[in-house]
């Protein structure tokens, strides 16, 4: 911790988050769902999805981009498909509302899809897939974001940063989880560089004219690049299609951040798939989960890291010592909690 | 076409493929399923999955690595899950056998998984997902291969090249399809470089000591690298888990090519997911498929290429002019068809 940072207990950080949200118009249920996600990210030291996002939530509600008191509505679509309409509210309460019926569906059919629709979406996906894996399910989630990324071989923003997250239950530890943007880097990382006055590495982004740039402001005005060239771009297109047209929601380029800079609705969808290993394996589940452990051991034995390892380390640390956030962020949040 | 190549009509190439397979012990059904896949790849100029793979099939049957007359067996697992046991035969006939009941399941539940088990698998995945998209379904397929790829941050082969393929139906053209290895490059490409006496680009592979190499033989003895660093590696791990333990089959490192170089069975699994847009969208399907077209237009309008574009171009060419294969390959196939 340095002079520009402040440490908060998990309890104090939770209370501050809830108070900021409720003071700014969010209902108790909406605020609690948002705070759970933001605090999970802050606890795991995923700063770009942590308490810093509370600023986004308040800014978005002020510009009319999120319905802060929305009550989500569940629709049964098919034996394996359930949809929840966030009704312009945040995706998080919609997910929490549909979570139990979705799990029941996955258990009954073996595989099920949850479509979250018409949602303001700003959060990391891993808390959702991790919560499904904690129930013994295998889970995959994806969502488009606004048009920030150029397709491979292109020069203009069209695709969202389109994250994909996956979780696999492990018998004796936290689930195997990954969650990554299909851009080279999450837009939140570029934004954090801009706020810190740092340049970004080459290969992350193009400027407005389609030329490579290391200036985070130019990158935010231009286009991020997809990770892994045409393969990452292909994956990103798949995410747009599944979490957009397939579930009856918007493509990335059909949404706009509600920040006063642009017309358009910030709402879009999220696609979540869950599978129940018992439906596939019956009594063989325990043996097959052990088999998967052999893969994880083969990775760590050669000095490579599992995707979730660092995050789980941070979680232990935060549970013992609380979280550290920039003093500037803390001041902004206190100002939002106690408006003059 | 050059002096070292030969042109075959699609009919002649088909007959040659069938004759090679049947002459070498494959049943009529197995041979036809294999020839359909190999010819689809050759027609679309995916050389690494084309007629060259017939050599693999014959080599594998000679080493006892594939049951050439296997009759696949279907098992219902759950309302959304169907499994087909290839019984040591090639994956292709198993897929074809289960295809119709799988499609029915996806239509009934909205989302379904087909698990292909205990299969000799050498083929591209795109013909399978394309065939599902031609029935109006959205499809995703993945399979592990043998341990050829080092995890990100590691140095030894552990993961398969683990391809993933996706298809989306388009109202007025061939489906949107991608199919890529989660290694930087498919192993077949390295093998083609070795056969051609060419070096491979930097960044594709490590040698046996874990050092970067441009020698295809050293790469084949060492490890390929995952595409896109830790993100591609994470995706590759997911593919191992879904197409391995989840469906009750082997991980990449638990299989071995049957080429006389090693002990072990070449059989492993394939995971295929299909979703019926009608279950998600009801009468809104046509509108939402049109919405997806806006994304494809946004990509091609900025000069970027859709993943399947080149392949569909090759298909038109081959349908008019036949296919071109190396003379050396043709000679080898004729020798396998007419053993002395």
TrEMBL record, chains A, B:
Name the SUPFAM superfamilies on file. L-sulfolactate dehydrogenase-like (SSF89733)
| Recorded superkingdom | Bacteria
Q: Which GO terms describe its molecular function?
A: oxidoreductase activity
Q: Does the keyword Oxidoreductase belong to this entry?
A: yes
**Source organism phylogeny:** Bacteria, Pseudomonadati, Pseudomonadota, Gammaproteobacteria, Oceanospirillales
* InterPro entries in UniProt: Mal/L-sulf/L-lact_DH-like_ah, Mal/L-sulf/L-lact_DH-like_NADP, Mal/L-sulfo/L-lacto_DH-like_sf, Malate/L-lactate_DH-like
**Entry keyword Oxidoreductase:** yes
Q: Which family does it belong to?
A: Belongs to the LDH2/MDH2 oxidoreductase family.
Q: What is this protein called in UniProt?
A: Ldh family oxidoreductase
Q: Which UniProt keywords apply?
A: Oxidoreductase
Q: Which organism is it from?
A: Chromohalobacter moromii
């Amino acid at each position: 911790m340095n002079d520009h940072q402040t440490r908060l207990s998990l309890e104090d950080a939770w209370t501050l988050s809830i108070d900021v949200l409720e003071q700014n118009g969010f209902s108790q249920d909406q605020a609690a769902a948002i705070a759970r996600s933001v605090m999970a990210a802050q606890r795991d030291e995923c700063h770009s999805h942590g308490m810093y996002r509370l600023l986004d939530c308040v800014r978005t509600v002020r510009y009319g981009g999120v319905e802060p008191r929305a009550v989500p509505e569940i629709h049964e679509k098919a034996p394996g498909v359930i949809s929840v309409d966030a009704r312009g509210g945040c995706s998080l309460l919609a997910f929490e509302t549909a979570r139990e019926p979705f799990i029941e569906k996955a258990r009954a059919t073996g595989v099920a899809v949850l479509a979250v629709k018409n949602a303001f979406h700003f959060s990391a996906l891993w808390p959702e897939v991790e919560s499904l894996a904690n129930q013994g399910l295998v889970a995959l989630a994806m969502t488009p974001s606004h048009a920030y990324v150029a397709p491979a071989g292109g020069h203009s923003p069209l695709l969202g940063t389109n994250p994909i997250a996956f979780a696999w239950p492990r018998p004796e530890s936290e689930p195997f989880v990954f969650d990554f943007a299909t851009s080279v880097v999450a837009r939140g990382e570029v934004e954090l560089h801009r706020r810190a006055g740092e340049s970004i590495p080459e290969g992350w982004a193009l400027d407005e004219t389609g030329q490579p740039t290391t200036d985070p402001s130019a990158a935010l005005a231009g286009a991020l690049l997809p990770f892994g060239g045409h393969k990452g771009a292909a994956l990103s297109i798949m995410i747009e299609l599944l979490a957009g047209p397939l579930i009856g929601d918007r493509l990335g380029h059909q949404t706009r951040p509600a920040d006063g800079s642009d017309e358009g609705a910030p709402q879009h969808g999220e696609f979540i798939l869950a599978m129940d290993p018992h439906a596939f394996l019956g009594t063989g589940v325990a043996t097959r989960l052990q088999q998967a452990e052999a893969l994880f051991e083969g990775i760590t034995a050669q000095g490579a890291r599992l995707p979730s390892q660092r995050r789980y380390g941070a979680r232990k640390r935060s549970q013992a010592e609380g979280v550290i956030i920039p003093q500037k962020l803390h001041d902004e949040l206190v100002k939002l909690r106690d408006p003059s």
